[in-house]
Amino acid sequence: MKNPLIPFKAVITDIKLETTDIRTYSLLLRDAVYKTKPGQFNMVGYPGVGEAPISLSSVVCENRFQHTIKAVGRVTKFIERLREGDELFLRGPYGSSWPLESTIGKDILLIAGGLGIAPMRPVIQEILTKRNSFGNVTLIYGTRRPDTLLFKNELDVWRKDAMVLLAVDEVTPCTIWAYHVGLVTELLDKVSFNVEKTFAFICGPEIMMRFISRGLFLRGFLPSRVYVSLERRMKCGIGQCGHCQHGSKFVCKDGPVFLYKEVSRFPDSLL
Q1: Handedness of CA 51, 55, 58, 62 (dihedral sign)
Q2: Residues 142 and 253 in one domain
Q3: Which of 35, 97, 106, 245 is the most exposed place for a label (fewest CB within 10 A)?
């Protein structure tokens, strides 16, 4: 069995600036066959610098995939300085995935906040390639301001096969914004769904996921139909170091995708 702690190299083939501090890196792995499921993550870094857990922001096609990364710490700020043709070192894929196979034939409600749209993007891509296998698909996506919206050029494509609702917390007087201004939770009132037929996938800040989940429960959702994605202090990726322990669970190994009821009962949970 291959040592899961040994990284592999992937070359950067393209870098797209999403916002002032968020970039989408297109990567190519040449030396091995690489397969993932939506929701999984890699440990991404460089020797001598360190690693950071980063969810995949695309499906994998012919060993090509993407990571959308915000420069906030030592590792991610180092990655920000890399250019096309440079190499990154990765370990993975690790963790659980969104339960798309078990939700075939059902309606899907996707709710993302901020950078949480990045791990949700491969879910959307997977659903759209198998569109006839699912019922109604709705995406609710909220962010702070219009200029922090990610994947702007893809929203109209997604709207062809799904309902897409957008919200921002604030808009400056000179900004043109035709969608909702306010909390993303307020958009739940603009969606009609059959709670017996719908599964909800939520990704974003934990406090946002808490209020979204409670809003869904008030509308009749069962906790067994609500999934959340966590990202807490992951270090080794294989449940050995204990950094990401969350109650009796390890986020890197048992997650990052959990049923809501699996993690909401833990004392350190915001859910």
Answers
A1: positive
A2: yes
A3: 35
Residue 1, amino acid: M
Give the end of a domain, one of 35, 62, 94.
94
Please indicate, yes or no, if residue 115 is contained in any of the structural domains.
Answer: yes
pLDDT along the chain (271 residues), means of 10: 81 96 95 89 95 96 96 95 96 94 96 96 96 96 95 95 95 88 92 94 93 94 94 82 85 92 76 67
Say if residue 253 is in the same domain as residue 158: yes
Burial class (CB in 10 A: 0-12, 13-18, 19+), 40: buried
What 3-state DSSP class applies to 126? helix
In one-letter notation, the amino acid at residue 152 is K
Residues 6+ apart with CB under 8 A from 113: 141, 142, 143, 184, 203, 204, 205, 208, 209, 212
Residue 262 token pair: 């699996």
Cβ–Cβ under 8 Å, residues 162 and 124: yes
Among 66, 94, 122, the domain boundary falls at 94
CA neighbor of 78 nearest in space, from 55, 45, 108, 107: 45
